[in-house]
Fold this sequence. Notes:
The protein is α+β, with helices and mostly antiparallel strands. It has 15 helices and 17 strands.
Amino acid sequence: MQGKKGHFNSLRNQIFIGFVMVMLVVLLLAGISAYDRVAALLKSNAEKHIHQTAVQASGRMDALIAQVNSLTAQVADDSYVQRLLSDEKQGKPATFNQRQALLQIAGSYQSFINGAQSMEIYTTGYNRIFPMDDRSLDLRVERSWITQADVGKGRMVWAGSDPEDPGVLLAIRRINLLDHSFEHGGYVVVRMQRSFFQLNDSNGADGSQDSIMLLDAEGEVVTSDPKINLDPKAILYSGSVVQNGEESYIVVRQKSELTGWTLAVLTPLRETTEGVSILRTALLVSGMIGVILFLVMSFFLSTMITRPLIRLMRAMRGAQPGAMKPNLMVSSTMEINELNDVYNQMVYRQNELTRVVHEKEVMQSRAELKALQSQINPHFLFNTLEAFYWSLEEKGDEEMARMVVAMSRLFRYIISSSQQDEWVTMADELEHAERYLRIMQMRLGERMQWEIQLSDAVRKVPIPKLLIQPLVENAILHGIESKLGPGKIIVHVASTEENLVRIEVRDDGPGMDESRLQSVIHALHGGPAVSNKGTGVGLINVHRRLKLYFGSQLGERCKLSITSKVGEGTVICFEIPKGTEGAYDS
């Protein structure tokens, strides 16, 4: 199971899957974007086409209405009709011959419009004078249409279907008497065939299948494509898409200001979506082809990238410690060549380090052997001093016995080399300095006095071994011994306000002038030694050890500070932080 998982998580498979996922996302986003844009474009073009059809049909309908309006206006303004209705208005009924003459006038006007089936003329009292059957206008059409004609004052009003013939539409117009200040003179009614308003132009030259439905103000069908069987109310008040059985139509409506009728252009929805379906199929096919091609290319690309890495991995697995061999391989990829060069450099370096480590192990073994041999010398020295001490005790020379004991303890403190004795407490270090001072007092006698000042707060502060005793030795050598009279050495250790410990060694010897002081400071920083007594190794050693132990913590403050005046003495001091044991890894 683990082997299968490791094989699945190989670099080649990860690169391959990564490339494929990126390609799928790119293809998906590009396909969706292209599909949305083209679908929106096709829909926009379809809407423009339908709107253009609606505008054209509305223009044709307005032209037909204008013809009917012109026809009724000519009849209303005809001089014979005006004179006849004026006589009726004045109480002079038209004779049979006068009414018979209207037949020729109406026929002449009807000949101009093919759809005009007949024409009727009424008086202000709703009596019909043509045709000659004496029917009343209020029985012919609803009273509301007559009222609308009166309100229109000569404007043509469409009164809907003829109650006697559903295939005929009625238009009514009030006749105004021109010679009597446009007084109300009567009405003219025109009966128009519904076929006159047939506006359908489906399956035209562009292959469209648009259907046109004309609805009056009451929602009744004026004219319609016989293939469309839809509820007129649904067409008027539904949204942009209506359903007719299994067929859906996009509806665009145009309302006529002249008649109040609504022109509805219906286009099958499948016509607008046909291009989208073709586009979807094309995108799917092209996407599948692109995915297949990219799968093949990704496989070869991932193999080309990972093959040199696999070779390098095999070379690394076959490497044996101490006998690693470089991988002599050249790849066409710059990064892989760089990786192989780094591996070869690591092999050369590893082989070199193996050789160096082997040599160091041999040298360490020899050093340990010498160290075991050298342990005999300190024990011999300590045992010899102990023998001197007991011999002096037996002879009663107590002063020399104390000196031997002090020297023995001094040597034990100095010679001890175990790692745990690298750091000691401040009290131990000052105790060692005190033993040294006692030994030197036995030699100098009353010429030397000394004092150690140690506060209890810093007694247990850790300090590297042998940092204070060399400064005391320097004070004796260059201070007390160079003075003619008695001298004094003061060792002062105390805390500072900056959480540091200040160690100060002061003597009242002859001191140094400025040039000599600068020479000593210069020697601490690598210059030549200037002392005429000794070599000055003690001060230099302390200064370097301070840099080594505390340089990273104190920076420039980690140094020996020397002040001196001629005739007043010399002061050497330094500062260390508290709690620093183990900060330096030797």
